[in-house]
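User: hey, got a sec? need FadR family transcriptional regulator folded
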Amino acid sequence: MISTMESSAKGFPASPPTIELPLRGKSGRSGRNLAALLFDEFASKIRNGLLAEGEKLPTESSLVQTYEVSRTVVREALSRLQASGLVETRHGIGTFVRAAQPASTLMLNADELTAAVDVMAVLELRISLETESAGLAALRRSPEQLQGIRMALQAFEIAFARGEDTVAHDLAFHTQIAEATGNRYFGDILRHFGAQLIPRTRIASIHQPQRDPDYLRRVNREHEEILAAIERQDADSARAAMRIHLTNSRERLRLAQKTSAA
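Assistant: Yep! Here you go:
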């Protein structure tokens, strides 16, 4: 586990902390467990004021080196922090601590609890499918396909600014990325599911402006990160950005399920 150590004035370890890394055949500690530990470490620092509003978190590379974990573990922990509303990522700048948010009162009704099981299953499929889709799109996209992705994102932004429905543009953004892979099966699968791919079409409580006015703004920022990576043909960053985006959706749904079951 992450050991308790003296912290610097900014709340970061004075020397590299120790995390028990999984040993094959000897430890049940998985990457997800390590991500949870890293999430808890930073969530605690933020909630206790050791990391102040607006403060920039270390880079992914720095966290990998300091905590001696994989980049996947770091990205999973950061995605959980984003989903919890504790941090926000600004394209090309870094990840920053957000202002304190009011306690979530998100609840799912009986019908939504039933639908949430299917939505969670689809999200798990999408994380696997679209993470690779984004990486391939970054490597293979044509200028025309890149423009199609950009136009879908711009349409999302315009609809959001006008207070109009964004679901069709959200779906178009993901479908355009699938098309840019050059493998028609990616697009076929997304079109098969259609608008049901977007959680808020089936779980109304996930998007309640009066409780979470920044929901679509966060979705848009996540989309911008994906587009930027595809534009510069950075396959690894495109995969990471897509994974963070979809993992955030999964974590928001998971928090809603946990609250409703309490």
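Quick note: Residues 1-29, 103-110 have pLDDT under 50 and may be disordered. Let me know if you need anything else on FadR family transcriptional regulator.
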